[in-house]
Amino acid sequence: MRMFRTALAAFALTILPAGAALAQLSPPVARVTGNLAVHAGPGSDYRVIDRVRNGESVLLAECTRGQAWCRIEGSGWVRGSYLVGMAAKERVSPVPLLDPLFRDQRGHRGWGLMPCGSFDPFC
């Protein structure tokens, strides 16, 4: 089992850079679903600075972990759930952290993606 994990990790390390390079060829564009308020920061507590219309295509600059909020290039932040274009959102989101003490639903230990918690207000 250990050899399989090592081989899988080595394979992933060789494939991921190539995939990332291909993904960079197209800009991270998403489509807006609904008429959205654009906020000055990633949260509804920030003031509204603009609006985007339903069906409008927007260029994304970044998203918070979990894509709860995304920043439109040259503008402000909108709720990520109203943007269609998962590939675009994932390209501009932080990479999930690997946690060596991760426990799955059955309580088994192993490497896994760290779930969002209280340490990250933007999950």
Automatic annotation (TrEMBL):
Residues 1-23 form the signal peptide. Pfam families: SH3_3 (PF08239). Keywords: Signal. Coiled coil: none annotated. Residues 34-83 form the SH3b domain. This is SH3 domain-containing protein. It comes from Devosia enhydra. The lineage of its organism: Bacteria, Pseudomonadati, Pseudomonadota, Alphaproteobacteria, Hyphomicrobiales.
